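Researcher: Please generate the 3D structure of the following complex. Treat every line as part of one assembly.
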Amino acid sequence: MRIELPEILETIRMTEVEHFDIRTVTMGINLKDCISDSLPRLKNNIYEKLMRTAAEHVATAEKVEAQYGISIANKRISVTPVALVGDGYYAEDFVEIAEVLDKAADNLGVDYLGGFSALVQKGFSKGDLSLIRAIPEALTSTRHVCASVNVATTKAGINMDAVYLMGKIIKQTAEKSADNDGIGCAKLVVFANAPEDNPFIAGAFHGVSEPDVVVNVGISGPGVILRAVKEARNADFPTLADHIRRMAFKITRAGEFVGRKVAELQNIPYGIVDISLAPTPMPGDSIADILKAMGLQDVGAPGTTAALALLNDAVKRGGLMASSHVGGMSGAFIPVSEDQGMISAARAGHITLEKMEAMTSVCSVGIDMVAVPGDTSAESIAGLIADECAIGVSNSKTTAVRVIPVPGKTVGEEADYGGLLGIAPIMPLSKIDNSHFIHRGGRIPAPVKGINN
Amino acid sequence: MSRLNEAEIRRIAELAVKQLEGQATAANVEKVVHEAVQRMSGEGAATAARHERMKNVPPHNQAKGQRIILTAFGANSIGILAGLTSELAALKCDIVDLSQKIMQDFFTIMILVDAGNSDVAYEQIRERMARVGESFNLKVIVQHEDIFKTMHRV
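Model: Done. Output below.
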């Protein structure tokens, strides 16, 4: 078992040069035991439970970072969908709950807290509606809280009332944070088939079937996969896939190891590793660059979807071999603003929303961190959500929309959000009218595929 | 006697109570406790012997989970190796393996260290080795061995 010098140097090159890190160690916390018929007591219960349970989370993660020399970019928390915990309360009460979550996240030192969420694929409870109506205000008055709404599943079909409502909520959220180019929408995602153990923001929440507390991990390593692709040079596809698979194995093992250590030191169960490749706006940390290294002039070229499918599958093969529990989203992310290569492709007009929609069918998240003109109608946004949901529901996979109608800006301009959120060039969205379709209301029936027993 | 811990004292008391069963006069208790202590010192001696044997076990087996890999790189200069290794010795870290290369005046070293006998915390080892690195203008990375095993071995 002697570790050879080249192996050690490879690990160090991965972490020091190629930005390999653990994107997030997310502690999932059940809040069902905080439910109360008194709002002050509910808020207090939530605050106390979070402070008690996650007291050591950040310190432990930092300790593991130091011990093994692998940096953990974000320490996060996910909670039980808040619509469940606060069912029966009004929208303004949910804003107060969001503020309590934010205060706890701030005091605990975590980067984000996900779970200001509702699962409404089949219909709304009173709490679901109140939470959704609270989203624009809640995301404006808090810094760390992230919201998500699941509007469709393969079993339930697509709740088009929720899809239309979310179109309107996204517009309102953008307008509330108009001074910052609608940044509130960067913390809001609309899902089909949302996974219950996703460690990634903005869609993380702690599913109802999860244990009381759990640690989930999300890896990040486009830089190292890029090297693997480059090293394959002009090899044929099986060889190319093999290079990616081997590298994915290494980064997943590191991710799982770090997650297990963080869980072990806090004496709580370890959940899953999410093998999504998460890019950052840093040069060399881009999914688009991987696709280009495979032989495309730019993303958006014919063949882009096939290249992404190959990448996604090869990463899964390596990841599944490396970990006993793979979960969450586990597919490549193609966010526009968070990926340098996607930013430049969007600026050049090489990548369009329509092409991204096609790419969604072979990776995990759909239209992610995409800025569209501020005058885009709620119906157009709802149509975009409905299309993504249709792909997810019909293919039994997760899809999501995180779109920002940037107030007062239009195609040709950009929104700069800074940090991991990056720069979003405003992309054109078709203005062909769909309002009659969107206004119909009701639920698009579950596909035949969903009836599989 | 001074080496008895709380659990052992409790065991002695339990033994005494069991043997006396209601006839606990001061003399009886003293006798029983004395016997119990004698018996347990015997056990203590066995433990000491086990520790003695462990001394001969190669240190990397004994200090399982305490192996650290130190990697350093930077421009070559005189005394780097001496500087790194003397600090490791001061930290009571045993060098198990070492591999060093100089490529075009660029110094690279990997040292596998057994820190099982060190009485200094990991964080401090890391900090002190980084400081030695700084004095030679080297980048020093200290990582637990397990991360390499995890990534490079099935």
